[in-house]
Amino acid sequence: MVLRAGWRSHYCISYNKSQRETRAFADFFENGGNRMRICGVICEYNPFHRGHEKQLRQIRAALGENTGVVCLMSGSFVQRGEPAVFDKRVRAQAAVLAGANLVRELPVTKALSSAEGFARGGVEIFSRLGAVDTLAFGCESGSADALLAAARAMCEPAYDAALREILNTGVSYPAARQRALVMLGFDGGVLERPNDILGLEYCKAILQTGSRLRPLTLLREGDYHAQEADAENPSATSLRERLSRGENISDFVPAQAAEIYHGARQYDLLSGERAMLAGLRLLQEEAWSRIAHGSEGLWSKAMKAAREKGSLEAVIGATKSKRYPRTRIQRLLLCAFLGITQEDVRRPASHVRALAFDETGRGILRRMRETGELPIVNAGEKPEDGALYDLELRAGRLYPLFCRDDTIPDGNAEENLRIFLKK
């Protein structure tokens, strides 16, 4: 079932492989269904694997084989507060070779946001780009019903009041969110699984911003956090774990991606530990106080730990608590190292960049330039609003310090970025 009330002229589709059905209503077909559909995917592809390839097939099964797929992908750093395992150009190229038409970079200020900020940032960017009409995302439930119901409830003042009341008892933010939803009579289970949580945030962002994007839910099979890779539905976590042990992941990724990953440099948080500790210890108190994710005095606790502890693990351990989980602390520390403030995270994206595309993607890119309101910046071009560009350059120069190789790569790659075109 799909909830209709309150969604205005939008429709919502649920595509569930086990049921093999697609349901839609309202203005599903525009112009008699003749216009090419363009579907957006907000992603990290850390790394791109068979599960992601399956998602691209599910999108076209639901919307039509000629549907254009535009990916908005995290760049050098990802939402859990770590460097991406492969360079963004490697991951973008893998995605296009495996079926995506266009890969754009999600700005680092949105990539290193909370789940709510990550989702809202992506929704706002796709909405401002103009050409994208649908937003697809995987979720464990595979159903739009519970997600939309919960999203609508979480947009109400009663939810905020319940959340504040529960947080005051000292429970963690994730647990408080779930309890607040249950207090209002909704299924708290949608806040138990990672992809359902992110899907819920996408729906919330669409509702809160009045976006014309239409959500398409796709059943996410397999365990998102599984340490052992499943052949058909591997988790990115399991593949990163394999890579850290020096194992081959070719059996779990498309052949085109395997070829690109072979020999590509790999990156992880531990490899940049000394560089991060140096940067954090040199950071002045005034700068710490403005860092993203450091509210409620958390920045002070992190600053003290960074100046005293001799490893990132020790810093994280001394800063995290029941209320503040590890991923938030990692985002805080990485933002401190990169110089990303709370103001930077809140500021809307001033531009977007293309990382890779095929001929269909080139046409979509042209359409975005003609109809969208968000500037599209070419490789090597500096946008008029230089604040985000300066942060991107800084992130690009510091990312090589997390390389696992003994030799640190060139730090000027961001300025010399070139777009991959699939012939």
Task: Explain what the structure shows.
The chain has 423 residues and is α/β, with parallel strands linked by helices. The chain contains 18 helices and twelve strands. Strands 1, 2, 3, 4, 7, 8, 9, 10, 11 and 12 form a ten-stranded mixed β-sheet that branches. Strand 1 and strand 2 form a beta hairpin. It is globular.
Produce the secondary structure layout.
Elements: E1 13-16, E2 21-23, E3 38-43, H1 50-63, E4 68-74, E5 77-78, E6 82-83, H2 88-97, E7 102-106, H3 108-111, H4 115-129, E8 134-139, H5 144-154, H6 157-167, H7 173-183, H8 194-209, E9 214-219, H9 236-244, H10 255-261, H11 273-282, H12 285-288, H13 298-308, H14 312-319, H15 326-338, H16 342-346, E10 352-357, H17 359-371, E11 376-377, H18 386-398, E12 420-421
Parallel strand pairs: 1-9, 3-4, 3-8, 4-7, 8-9, 10-11, 10-12
Antiparallel strand pairs: 1-2, 5-6, 7-10
Helix pairs in contact: 2-10, 4-8, 5-8, 6-7, 13-14
